[in-house]
Amino acid sequence: MRSIEHEGQTFEYDESCIFNYGWQKQVVSEDASKNFRAAERLFCGKDEEVAERLGGSMDAMGELIKAIMQDNGRAAKN
Questions:
Q1: Are the beta carbons of 7 and 60 closer than 8 angstroms?
Q2: Nearest in space to 7 (alpha carbons), one of 42, 59, 73
Q3: Which residues lie below 8 Å from residue 13, measured CB to CB, with a gap of 6+?
Q4: Under 8 Å CB-to-CB from 54, ≥6 apart: which residues?
Q5: Nearest to 74 by CA among 15, 29, 23
Q6: Which residues fall within 8 angstroms of residue 8, CB to CB, at 6 or more apart?
Q7: In the chain, where are the structural domains located?
Q8: Which terminus has fewer CB within 10 Å in the chain: N or C?
Q9: Which pLDDT score, from 0 to 100, does residue 72 have?
C-alpha cells in the first residue's frame, strides 16, 4: 500500500497495480466495466468511497489515477 496527497486529501492505493500489464490493459480498455474493475483493484475495493470523496466526478477520479501513475513513474526513475 502507498498513499498520495491529491486535492488536499490523502488516498491509499495498491502500487503493485501500476506496473502490472493486466491492470494497464484494463485502464486503457474501451470497455468501461474493465476501467471500473481497474479502479476497484487500485483502491483495494474502496473505489466508490474514493469517488465519493472526489465529489462523484469521473473526471476527478481520472485525474487522481493520472496523478498516481505520474507519481509512480517518478518513483521508478529514482
A1: yes
A2: 59
A3: 1, 2, 3, 4, 42, 43, 44, 68
A4: 7, 60, 61, 64
A5: 15
A6: none
A7: 2-73
A8: C
A9: 86
Q: Provide the β-strand partners of residue 2.
A: 13
Q: How far apart are CA 33 and CA 3, in angstroms?
A: 25
Query: CA-CA distance, 12 to 20, in Å (whole number)?
Result: 18
Contact 3, 42 (CB under 8 A): no
pLDDT in tens, 16-56: 999 899 999 999 999 999 999 999 999 999 999 999 999 99
Per-residue pLDDT band at 78 (split at 50, 70, 90): very low
Which residue bears the cell 474514493?
A: 50
5 close to 13: Cβ distance less than 8 angstroms: no
